[in-house]
Design brief:
The chain has 202 residues and is of the alpha/beta class. Helix content is 57%, strand content 11%. It contains 5 helices and 4 strands, in the order αβαβαααββ. The chain is elongated. It starts with 13 loop residues before the first helix and ends with a strand.
Length: 202
């Protein structure tokens, strides 16, 4: 990939800002030619290609730093070779489709995680109930001996440890994935502008 410029921090050609809503946060990426934006190993047609991993990471990382309530715009600047009219026209839809698919994938991952959490919680609660029952029976059989108390408490502690995974999922695991999906939703609806070596186009 070519050089990448900081979004919203450099002067833009007039065409890059034309028609953008007030308060739009710009993410600017500078490339030699348009094909560098996409994964060169992807055999799919231009419109259906995945973004280059470095370009995707750059766009996503900068989007995370921008205000959540502001519209986004991606400005792709080409310094060496202008894009063909067909590729320029297909660029916005290609970017939108890529991030829309990424949002769907994140939500699918969230559904799988919550399903695992529900199953894990059920298993953990059953294990806790069984462990408490066994611990009480051990305590009754051993009586007041100290090692009996140790066995009983160890079984109960082990039972509660079994709930660690579902509690981690429901307390901490789900919301970063949901935030990622919402970020991809924003990127899937952002304005995409192409500023070529010979001018600019929406």
């Amino acid at each position: 990939m070519g050089a990448i410029a900081d979004p919203g921090r450099t002067a833009q050609p007039r065409g890059a800002d034309a028609g953008l809503p007030p308060g739009t946060e710009r993410i600017e990426i500078q490339l030699g030619e348009l094909k560098q934006l996409f994964n060169s190993m992807d055999p799919a047609p231009f419109r259906s290609r995945d973004l280059d991993p470095n370009a995707e990471a750059y766009i996503v990382d900068w989007a995370r730093e921008l205000r959540r309530d502001s519209p986004l715009a991606l400005v792709v600047r080409l310094s060496r070779q202008a894009a063909s009219p067909e590729d320029a026209a297909a660029l916005p839809q290609a970017v939108h489709d890529y991030f829309a698919h990424a949002a769907d994938a994140s939500r699918a991952r969230l559904r799988r995680l919550l399903r695992i959490g529900r199953v894990s919680l059920l298993i953990g609660l059953l294990f806790v109930a069984a462990a408490i029952f066994v611990g009480d029976r051990v305590g009754d059989l051993v009586g007041s001996y100290q090692y009996g108390k140790l066995i009983q408490e160890s079984v109960v502690i082990g039972a509660w440890v079994a709930l660690w995974r579902p509690l981690e999922i429901f307390l901490y695991g789900w919301w970063p994935i949901l935030g990622e999906a919402r970020l991809f939703d924003r990127l899937a609806s952002m304005t995409v502008r192409l500023v070529g070596a010979e001018g600019s186009s929406a």
